Amino acid sequence: MGTMIELTSGDGTLVPAYEARPMGTPRGAVVVIQEIFGVNSHILAVADGYAAEGYLAVAPAAFHRVKPGVELGYTDADMGQGFGYKTAVEDLPAPGVMQDIQAAIDHAVQASGGKVGIVGYCWGGLLTWRAACTLSGLSAAAPYYGGGVTTEAEIARQPLVPVMAHFADEDKWIPLETVETFKKAHPSVQVFTYAAHHGFNCDQRASWHAPSAQLARERTLAFFKQHLG
To answer: Interhelix angle for 98-112 vs 123-134, to 10°?
Structure first.
């Protein structure tokens, strides 16, 4: 359904991105932020899913500055590689990858002619939260089980747009008590928890939980319909 395009970041870097276009005029756009496994087949499927709902979807390659062309699977070895790439990106001088996400938002605004939301999973959930608090051109954000979102430094951020956050009750990476702390600090954020594990949205992972994934998707689509059209 989609094609690879190039985004021009703020410092002139060309960043690959997957773009999926809907049939007819887009109702808006959704920027899709990858897990630590790159813009792989799952992320392409997520983008295609939003395009099928009428949105122009753009998934920038968030690892491009440290390792181009990353498309990992979900083995332990893949996870180790992904953590390494994530650490390298997090260590980049500011604004680092955030300028690439801004480029994706800017492209989505221009290409769709409508409002733009952002959704991200795992590490992408953290980047989605940061985007909601620091970037321009967004109208809504939906981070899924963002590792690090519930740390003190991230809780201190303030979102500029409506946020719906999805967490998992049995997530060994994000303790439930820290989710409660995040929820209390941000009463305007819609926070949902699911009887599932980290990664429950991904049907390529052992932690996939179809009922939770479906419910979270329905909630996110309703949220985007409210704020994007």
So the answer is: 70
Q: Of the listed 42, 64, 122, 197, which one is catalytic?
A: 122
Catalytic member of 100, 106, 171, 227: 171
- Candidates 42, 198, 209, 227; catalytic one: 198
| Cβ contact 73:37 at 8 Å | yes
> Mean pLDDT over residues 43-62, rounded?
98
CATH number for 80? 3.40.50.1820
Report how many domains make up the chain: 1
Respond yes or no: is residue 106 known to be catalytic. no
User: Largest alpha-carbon pair distance within the chain?
Assistant: 45
Tokens of 57: 């979807």
Burial readout 32-59 (b: 16 or more C-beta within 10 A, e: otherwise): bbbbbbbbbebbbebbbbbbebbbbbbb
The model carries a pTM of 0.97
| CA–centroid distance for 110 within its chain | 20
Spatial neighbors of 160 by CB under 8 A, at least 6 apart, are 132, 133, 134, 138
DSSP designation for 156? T
Mean of the per-residue pLDDT values for the chain? 97
Q: Report the side by side order of strands in the sheet with 164-168.
A: 2-8, 14-20, 55-60, 28-33, 116-121, 140-144, 164-168, 190-194
Expressed as residue numbers, the domain containing 214 is 2-228
